[in-house]
Amino acid sequence: MTKNTFSKNTNLFVIVFMSAVFASVGQEMSFEEYNPKSTLIVPGKEIKQAKFPFIDVHSHQRDMSVGKLTSLLKDMESLNEGIMVNLSGGSGASLKAKIDNINESFPNRFVVFANVDFSNVDGADWGREPHYN
């Protein structure tokens, strides 16, 4: 082995070794901590309200008490949001309470999806009868 070949092999080994060391020491950052600065610069003004009423088809509102609905409706009005679809309606008595609150307070402004209750899914009769909590 010549001195030149030895030097190349040594350099290659050092590069591979250091790459492995730095890869194993990599930085960890949670999603909440990741907040890159935007480099996008465009002319225009900030739009704070939709020109036409729109439907928010993906929200998760676990609290749909009358007080919370009143607060949500105020926010919806400021954005020109016509209808909010809540995908976290739950099931049983909780779902019924949410629907009752909507119908009594702000009908036609909220849509609530029911969620399957998987408690006792291993039971022999699960799926044969409706499960209401």
What features would you highlight for this structure?
3 helices; alpha/beta; three-stranded parallel β-sheet; 38% helix; 133 residues
Question: Quick gist of this model?
Answer:
The protein has a three-stranded parallel beta sheet with strand order 1-2-3.
Structural class, from helix and strand content?
A: alpha/beta
Report the portion of residues in β strands: 5-15%
The H/E string reads HEHEHE
Q: Which of globular, elongated, flat, extended, rod-shaped describes the shape?
A: flat
Radius of gyration: 28 Å
Give an account of the 3D structure.
- There is one protein chain.
- The protein has a three-stranded parallel β-sheet.
- It is flat and about 90 Å long.
- It contains three helices and three strands.
- The chain has 133 residues and is an alpha/beta fold.
- Helix 3 links the parallel strand 2 (81-86) and strand 3 (110-112).
SSE blueprint:
Layout: H1 3-24, E1 54-59, H2 66-79, E2 81-86, H3 92-105, E3 110-112
Parallel strand pairs: 1-2, 2-3
